[in-house]
Design a protein that fits this description.
Blueprint (H helix, E strand, L loop, with lengths): L2 E6 L4 H14 L2 E7 L4 H13 L2 E6 L1 H4 L2 H12 L4 E5 L15 E2 L4 H15 L8 H34 L5 H10 L5 E3 L2 E3 L3 E3 L3 E2 L5 E2 L2 E3 L9 H22 L3 E2 L5 E2 L16 E3 L3 E3 L2 E7 L7 E5 L14 E5 L3 E11 L2 E12 L39 E6 L3 E3 L2 E10 L4 E5 L13 E6 L3 E11 L2 E2 L3 E8 L8 E3 L3 E3 L2 E7 L7 E5 L14 E4 L4 E10 L2 E4 L3 E6 L99
Parallel strand pairs: 1-2, 1-3, 3-4, 4-5, 15-20, 22-28, 30-36
Antiparallel strand pairs: 6-7, 8-11, 9-10, 12-13, 14-16, 16-18, 17-19, 19-20, 21-23, 23-25, 24-26, 26-27, 26-28, 29-31, 31-33, 32-34, 34-35, 34-36
Length: 657
Amino acid sequence: MTSIGICYAADDSMAARRLAHLLRQEGYTLVQIAPVRSEPDAVKRLKRAVAACDCSVLLLSPNAMRSATVRSAVQLLRQSKKPIIPVITQTIPPQVTMPFTNSIDATDGIEVALPQIRRQLHALSRPRSSKQPQQATFTTLVTRVAQMISAVAVVLSTILIVYLIATPAPDFEAAEATLEAFQLLPLASGGTTLPVATNMAEPSLSEDGDLAASATATDPAESSSGPDADALRATDTSTSDASVTAASASDGEDATGEPIATATSSPTDVPPPVAVINASAIAGVAPLEVNFTSESTGAIDQHRWDFNGDSVADSTDVTPGAFTYTTAGTYTVSLVVTGSGGSDQATVTITVTQPIPTQPTATLTPTEPPPPTMTPVPPTARPTATPRIPQPTARIMADVTSGTVPLQVRFTSSVTGQIDAWSWDLDGDGDTDSRSANSTTYTFESPGEYRAALQVSGPGGTSATSYVDITVDQVPAPVASFTASTTNGTAPLEVRFTNTSMGVITGYEWDFESDGEVDSTEASPSYIFTESREYRVTLRAIGPGGVSKAPDVSVFVSPPDLDRDDDGVNDLDDCAPDDPTIYRGAPEIPDDGIDQDCDGADLVIDRDGDGFKNEDDCGPDDASIYPGAPEVADDGIDQNCDGEDDVTATQEPDADS
């Protein structure tokens, strides 16, 4: 295998890029680095990567395995029937079951795990010799054709033997001649010997009178003589030496301490198998039942399982089923797979703890513990050192990350491992604000940028600090405004005020008496004015962003019968309370110098009194100048507004001048 694909979840992107860089430095060919996401384009990219590569390196973390998208990606990789190298980037808590049990531990960094990744890639993708590729291809083709011919010959020989046995009156000479016709000869091509020759014994009659024949498989070198036989024996010796050398160079050993060749050379260049163990549980309380299945890949002829680490094969099935651990301890489960390309070994550690004893309430009759389900010999507990408790991990999350003061935020956490203490620093001042487990709530009263932090601790140590940023903005000041149902009337006068303020408002202050005292805190109150005078009503709107004051509104209150000139307008609202022709809204007489409608000025239409409106008069301030006025010739004035003065005579200039 020469091409590699790297698949990773979102939180392993940096590790994936680092691994890709290191593998390229090692000289490996990377087809694609595919993120595992649920978007259609990401799914298509992942499928292309799986289809294009010879093997996949899958980066996994406990958080990623909680995602349905990641689990679907794992299923897709398994369906591809291509080798998978799982790499764990974060510590696996006891309560999380990962889909692979022979994963490479990269929790201390990709660089630390690189040698293990390199060994598996080397076993999966051992390069072929570059010398004489055409000759190697031709040799492989000839070998496979010879194997097919040998298989057909064996089938025909078997049919002939059955026929001869079933024949009541056999012809020995004809049978012997026929067997000699199908006898196999040694075949050597390109230094490869096919040990498929068969020597047929003389047929003989059994005690029952039936025809019997015996066939003994022999090595071609042993059944041949002369130069060809010497060549065959030399070929066998070289092949055997090559296999032993490959086995001696293996990096791994099986449970008995014997070396295991992970890539044994073979005549057909079959890649070695890859051993993969899938265990339903890796830790629990005794008695612990664990189901084992093999997910190994490659050409495999034999499986050998050792469940309790005693170097004795407990099963040779592909799926051995359940095994029960009845005694507390640490057990190393090993699986050795062997095929035509070599062999490989995978191990997984099972930790079994003693159940907590309960106080008996009655005398119990002791019973023998149940025997293991998969072997007649009960497993021998080989307890080792106390298993290391994994370091806990923590991730802080917030329901909102931005808003205006006061901002209330509910913080939650995602944790793994055994946890005894929680420490929440929510305002980023370095002090613990809460020790609540799993979640807490905090209200930010001031605007600013805050970094909330969470750290947990337990028997396995203290987790790394997890952070989340919170942005709190200042609320804008409100804008106060209001309207009044009426602004004048006779006492007692009731006025309804409607609040039209805008913004975030927490309170109102109304002053109706103009004395600086708060008369109401309602949003839209009513007030009765009893005295005959002018009132200036004010409103203050209060909010977290500040205080806003609305423009004052004047309310005029008069006695019930105060109208001396009987013009229908209260004297407090009348600019001429003693003249019935002058009041607010009265008809205006232009150019009389009197302000009848109380708007502050007389309506002036013809300032010079020449009978023409100001806008139509070219001399609005000169009564002798207006359109059509008599023109005085030669005076330099345009009296009739025609645009020029009249000239009646032209005086010739003096010749002496």
